[in-house]
Amino acid sequence: MKAFLILENGTVFPGTSIGSPREIISEIVFNTSMTGYLDVLTTPSYAGQAVVMTYPLIGNCGVTPDLESTRPWVDGLIVRELVRRPSNFRCQGTLEEFLVKQEIPGIAGVDTRALTRLLRSSGTMNGMITTDENYRLEEILPKIKAWRAGDLVSKVTCREKKELLGKGKRVALLDCGTKKSVERILKERGLHVTVYPADTQAETVLSDKPDGILVCGGPGDPRDCGALVTEVRKLYESGLPLFGIGLGHQLLAQAVGATIAKMKHGHRGGNYPVRDLKTSRVYISTQSHGYVVETDSLDPEVAEASFENVNDRTNEGITCRNGKAFSVQFYPEASAGVQSSSYLYDLFIEKMGGNQ
């Protein structure tokens, strides 16, 4: 079946329908990872987005148990070539079967190199994936341009509080769109983790007497998260150790007075170099964000930049002057990707006084 990717600027990319034939409008973004397509599909920070995989061959391993949540969150998938005969001893089915089962529309046969170059030069834009060969641009372009994702954090967060038992320090995890790999790395360190829905009041979290607070990554525009920022500010003012990741980094930055800007095309992939500004050591990181903390907006008496992106010098982390709160834009657990920056979880534990 034929399919078409139609961008809000009127550019049309023809291809073949994969997955669900249903029509969707979404934000079109690209991911530069060579591996980890299942992680991309099931990472909550991709909610409200259709993802272009820049690596040309996708689906080599089929579907394996390596999922970041119980369901996929992407609106759609755009690839150059879909592998229909995967080869992996852990394979539980093909990627196309997974897309059909999960009702995710996709399109294969797209010139993803040309599409990515367009998104890099013109910036991220909305687009439609459709199988309707009789589409009329004059009718659908206004709809594409007008589309907005809305409140995505409330879509991906857990519905009720849950406990991940451990014998170590008690960590309150504010679920703005957490990944299984975050929960796994905390459990591996023996921490007792309590996961809270994103709309939980700070007073409720603090009443459980945690030793530290983790605000995880998630989707959407952080500038629309005013209520969340207010609660994170209260958590910060409690004086407890606080670690922000991804969206959590942006929420903490806003809580201490910094501003956020939308990026032209964002950082999405498992190969972004970030520099520790104190040691000058460079780490390869996994990222998924389209907004950035403006370093110049940080009050130097309250917080300072701790990491920067090597490629474009954008902010990748902050450290607060209170010595207890810090955050990074990238994923220290790095799924998929290298794990050289996972020491940041140990730094968080250290700020809680160790895990004994």
CATH superfamily of the largest domain: Class I glutamine amidotransferase (GATase) domain
Strand order of the largest sheet: 10-12-11-13-14-19-18-17-15-16
CATH architecture of the largest domain, by name, is 3-Layer(aba) Sandwich
Can you count the helices?
10
**Strand residue percentage:** 25-35%
Cα end-to-end separation: 59 Å
CATH top level class name of the largest domain: Alpha Beta
Helix content estimate: 10-25%
Which ranges are low-confidence, i.e. pLDDT below 50, for 5 or more consecutive residues?
none
What is the general shape? globular
Main beta sheet: 10 strands, mixed
CATH fold description of the largest domain: Rossmann fold
**Mean pLDDT across residues:** 95
Q: What class would the helix/strand composition place it in? A: alpha/beta
Quick one: how many beta strands?
A: 19
Characterise the protein shown here:
This protein has 356 residues and is α/β, with parallel strands linked by helices. The protein has two domains: 2-146, Glucose Oxidase, domain 1, CATH 3.50.30; 153-351, 3-Layer(aba) Sandwich (Rossmann fold). 23% of the residues lie in helices and 32% in strands. It has ten helices and 19 strands. It has helices at residues 37-42, 95-101, 112-122, 137-146, 153-156, 180-188, 202-207, 226-237, 247-255, 343-351, and strands at residues 2-7, 12-19, 24-31, 49-53, 57-58, 76-78, 81-82, 105-108, 125-130, 162-164, 170-175, 192-197, 212-215, 242-245, 260-276, 282-293, 303-309, 315-320, 325-328. Strands 10-12-11-13-14-19-18-17-15-16 form a ten-stranded mixed sheet, with helices on both faces. A seven-stranded mixed β-barrel has the order 1-2-8-6-4-3-9. Helix 8 links the parallel strand 13 (212-215) and strand 14 (242-245). Helix 8 packs across helix 9 (247-255). The radius of gyration is 20 Å and the shape is globular.
